[in-house]
């Protein structure tokens, strides 16, 4: 029978049901404080930080690791949190834009971006600052080329990058 195979195919679901996500206890340090939370295995770090921890400075832009708006530091290295599973951060140190300012004062990068107008709409700014922070911790006196390379994974559609580069260079000129 010609139509029997197609009839059988229509009666089967197109997709098998998704497996039930398991939860596990996640222990990590966020902005200097240790936390333990029950999280689903597939929870992305950006969603954990925004929805569980309440740190909305971490932006969700492209959901594909291409725009840099979600950049955080994991053990000091800039990482796109939109493609990083939260469970991969077990026993690690995660820093967000909220963790940079201390005692109610902006850190040197935040201050430089503010003073030099390194931001317009502000959506990309947290990711830019976190990528730059990772660079300045590794290399306190970067060249312009090194700054450009460090920020190459971060997109901005407002400023044209000149003020951003100027802000990072100004922060590098200030001792931490």
TrEMBL record:
Q: Name one GO molecular function term.
A: oxidoreductase activity
> EC number(s) for this protein?
1.3.7.9
Q: Determine if Transmembrane is one of this entry's keywords.
A: no
**What sequence ranges are listed for the domain 2Fe-2S ferredoxin-type?**
24-100
- The answer to whether keyword Glycoprotein applies is no
Q: What's the top EC group for this one?
A: oxidoreductase
UniProt entry keywords in alphabetical sequence: 2Fe-2S, Iron, Iron-sulfur, Metal-binding, Oxidoreductase
PANTHER family named among the record's database cross-references: OXIDOREDUCTASE WITH IRON-SULFUR SUBUNIT (PTHR44379), XANTHINE DEHYDROGENASE IRON-SULFUR-BINDING SUBUNIT XDHC-RELATED (PTHR44379:SF8)
Protein name, entry field: 4-hydroxybenzoyl-CoA reductase gamma subunit
The scientific name of the source species is Rhodopseudomonas palustris (strain BisB5)
